[in-house]
Amino acid sequence: MFTFIFKRLLIAIPVLLILIVGTFILMYAAPGSPFATERGVPPAVLANLERQYGLDQPFYVQIWRYIWGIVSDFDFGPSFIYRDQDVNDLIAQGFPVTLTYGFWSFVVAVLVGGTLGIIAAIRHNTWLDYLAVGISIGAQVLPNFVLAPILVLIFTLWLGWLPGGGWQGGQWQYVILPVIALSTSFMASIARIARASMLEVLTSNFIRTARAKGLPMRRIVLRHALKPALLPVISYLGPAFVGMITGSVVIDIYFSTGGIGQFFVASALNRDYGVMMGITVLLGALTIFFNLVVDILYAWIDPKIRY
Amino acid sequence: MTRLSLLTTSTILTFALGSTAWAQTTHPVTGETLAEDQTFQYRLLDQFPSIDPQLIEETAGGHVARQLFEGLLTQNADGTLRPGVAESWSSEDNQTWVFNLREDARWSNGDPVTAQDFVASWQRAADPATASEYAWYVELSQISNSAAVIAGEVGPEELGVRAIDDRTLEVTLSQPLPYFPQMTVHYTFMPSHQPSVQEHGAAWTAPENIVSNGAYMLDEIAVNEFFRLVPNPEYWGAEDVIITEVTGFVINDASQALTRFQAGEFDMMDDLPAGSYPRLEAEMPDVAHSVPRLCSYYYAVNQSESGHEALQDPRVRTALSLMIDREVITDQVLQAGQAPAFNFTHWATAGFEMPEIEYATWTQEERMAHAVQLMTEAGYGPDNPIELNLIYNTSENHRQIATVISQMWRPLGVTTVLNNFEWQSYLEIRGNQNFDVARSAWCGDYNEASTFLDLLTSNNSNNDGKYANDEVDRLMAESVTMADPQPNYTAVEQILSEDMAIIPIYHYTQNFVLDPTIRNWPMENVENNWYVRDIYRVAAE
Fold first, then answer.
1. A31–B contact, CB cutoff 8 A
2. pTM above 0.90, yes or no
């Protein structure tokens, strides 16, 4: 197992490097620049701006300096648009926010979705099953940028129970709506996957044996059926994670949380090369790490899988 | 003392003492009853990139800067000049200006605001090392040597501004400019606290470091989420400042913001959702407002070699302009109180005298008939059609207007191909004259007609259509030397209209919703410069 983990981490390094270089190339290929304004910047000022941000260097020098900055100092460089801050500051401010509501969205999606799916499978073909499937299809279809305004309409305008946005350091009132909006469609997918896989497991031979031996249903489900049923759910978690990252863009825009998702899109449109690269590297590293965790989890649950 | 008189006395005393607790504060000038909650919250569309006065380049940062910093002059609610740090100013020839600073102007750390502060800040704005994207504004103000300083040919100390003493600032311009004081209102000319800049570098605007000289100080900021300002006790006018806290919420999505506004989360928002104004005006007439704003919307027409050759003929350009039914656009597409435009300079610009533009008085049928006639004269029409490439930056409103106009042009035999681009790409494409017609807008940098008309002089870098007319150039160059330049401006507009240098479409309004308990909002300031130190909240009835 340790060699496996070690090899995966080793491979992650060239993957990240390719990600950095690829993003760099695409970024520069796009027309426009961070300093393009409608009024036009005087040439001497533009020259200074480019010098300040190292844009006057040849391409490979810029990439090298950027990578070296990360490796030696963990310094992601300045933001090209937010003149008062650098990328490390912006990520330090925004990442905890995204991590908080992302984490809770994950927990909610897995727990609620998993439970819903498993109950639906156990009570197969009853009203509970149909209700659960109905809810999950509806939730899966509803995009989060439709759900977000509806949530604000209901909970902020009509009921006045919750604030319509902001983060205020992460107090619980500000976390609820983003978590609901982000987790809903994933909860639905997880519910359906859990239900389908649990249904399959429940008809397998070893479960039949357990039932024949007279074990109570609860024991069967929790002790014997859960683990194998969760396997497809776990393999879904990797793509779900990526989906949540992209979903967080919408959440940040609609709920003004100040998370890094918003920076992701805004920096591309504004040509903020520093922030764009920084977030790409961060999210790339996270995705690689998370996929590794999922694979390890997989091995832990399924004894047939050994690396 | 009898029991009755004891009772009476104690009752009277109770009322007398208690009434001071009841007595609500009233506004010192208007006498209105003030609310207990004197906080002001508003919504921003986007996080501002910077609040360093010399680095600000967009309106959101400008609004914040106006509360944190104070320049030589500020504006009244109607947009007229008002003393800021400068108590008085004078000039004999409109070329050398002297500003006398007030004695009690202070930075938030107690340092006095001196003329040297302004000298250093203005030099910093022009210094290429600062890399300010608004350095062009210093050049626009005609301060002597500004162009050379910005180009890096001479050092910033050569800029034509010097401190005669701590409280007297002398500015030397390279040519007379009667409206120079108006230009000092702009954020680029606000002072920045030099010791803080030296000590903290780019981080000097962080809440723990920032030193400001305006009515407010920066208390807290969370990027893309919110910021908060609190009153500056060292401000010379601190006694008159009523609002005790300003909070700005960054909310990108306009509909979401409107929902939260209606839930009472904040007091003011502009950038309303597209098409929402008529409903808001009908449902909440004392909340929704539409006031003139110093910007003009127009189509730039490419008159250079890279554009369609037909566009070099003024008859074709005039025909295109005449065919547009501007009232359809303002009344049915935009629906927010905008005025149709037949000229470039905004009608509400201070002092501007609108020339007589003949076709502005005709009916649309007359205009259309005339347009067809002109087009035929020029040799084009349904039998000799033209295809034009119309570009605009991605936006619902621009798309609707472009679609409507392209339909209006069809009877002329004009087929329009619409192309939209995101902002950055759009700037590049338009700047390279890769278009036939380009959607454009221009906002005045100061409240005087030249801020618009200079755009259409032949060597202005923002003249994307490459319109060139020697007489216009001459009239504009002459206007800076005149005591009253309005006749020249009117003459220039006349020429622009005859040549149809651009196709004017409408003049902007500022549409916003404002909580009705907020009073003294500057509705008549066409530059949309609002100062929180002037507003206050009244008690709800």
1. yes
2. no
Token readout for A282 is 């961060």
In this complex, which of A83, A163, A259 lies closest to B49 when CB atoms are compared? A83
Q: Report the relative pairing of strands B386-393 and B518-519 from DSSP bridges.
A: unpaired
Q: B295: distance to nearest CA of chain A, Å?
A: 14
Does the beta-carbon distance from A41 to B135 stay under 8 Å? yes
- Say which amino acid occupies A212: A
Tokens 């909440």, residue located: B284
Q: Which residues of B23-39 are buried (b: 16+ CB within 10 A; e: fewer)?
A: eeeeeeeeeeebbeeee
Question: For B248-287, what is each residue's pLDDT tens digit?
Answer: 999 998 999 999 999 999 999 998 988 899 999 999 999 9
Q: How far apart are CA A151 and CA A102, in angstroms?
A: 18
A256 touches chain B (CB under 8 A): yes
- Comparing CB atoms, the residue among B55, B225, B423 nearest residue A256 is B225
Is B225–A167 a contact, with Cβ atoms under 8 angstroms apart?
yes
Q: Is the dihedral of CA A257, A258, A263, A269 positive or negative?
A: positive
The torsion angle over the Cα atoms of residues B373, B379, B381 and B382, rounded to 10 degrees, is: 140
The answer to whether the Cβ–Cβ distance between A48 and B128 falls below 8 Å is: yes
Based on its alpha-carbon atoms, the radius of gyration of chain B, rounded to whole angstroms, reads 27
Nearest CA-CA distance, residue A45 and chain B, Å: 5
CA gap B299, B418 in Å, rounded: 13
The pairing of beta strand B386-393 with beta strand B414-421? parallel
Residue B319 is predicted with a pLDDT of 95
More confident: B435 or A261: B435
Query: Helix, strand or coil for residue A98?
Result: helix
Is the torsion defined by CA of B9, B14, B15, B20 positive or negative? Answer: positive
Q: Say if the Cβ atoms of A32 and B424 lie within 8 Å.
A: yes
Dihedral (Cα; B520, B525, B528, B530), 10-degree rounding:
-30
Interface test with A, best of B223, B266, B462 (most A CBs within 10 A): B223
Residues of A in contact with B150 (CB under 8 A): 42, 44-45
| pLDDT band, very low/low/confident/very high, at B481 (cuts 50, 70, 90) | confident
Does B68 have pLDDT greater than 60?
yes
CA angle B416/B417/B421 to nearest 5° reads 130
Alpha carbon distance A50, B76 (integer Å): 39
| The one-letter amino acid at B116 | Q
- Mutation target among B133, B138, B454 for the A interface, most CBs of A within 10 A: B133
Over residues B428-448, the mean pLDDT reads: 92
Measured distance CA(A260)–CA(B444) in Å, rounded: 35
Select from A67, A70, A75 the least CA-distant residue to A21: A67
Q: Residue A259: list chain B partners with CB under 8 A.
A: 224
- Judged by CB atoms closer than 8 Å, whether chains meet at A83 and B259 is answered as no
* Distances in whole angstroms, Cα of residue B252 to Cα of each of A59, A252, A262, B314, B429: 34, 9, 10, 42, 26
Reported ipTM: the value is 0.86
Structure token pair of residue B205: 């605007």
Query: Minimal CA–CA distance to A175: which of A101, A250, A262?
Result: A101
φ/ψ of residue B347, rounded to 5: -60, -25
Q: Phi and psi at residue B389, in whole multiples of 5°?
A: -100, 110
Q: What phi and psi values does residue B537 have, to the nearest 5 degrees?
A: -115, 130
Judged by CB atoms closer than 8 Å, whether chains meet at A164 and B256 is answered as yes
How many CA atoms within 13 Å lie on the side-chain side of B414? 29
Alpha carbon B282 to its chain centroid, in Å, reads 27
Average pLDDT score over residue span B345-349: 93
Residue B401: DSSP 8-state: H
Could you tell me the pLDDT band of residue B4, with boundaries at 50, 70 and 90? low
Residue B235: which of B345, B130, B84, B61 has the closest Cα? B84
Is B133's CB within 8 Å of A262's CB? no
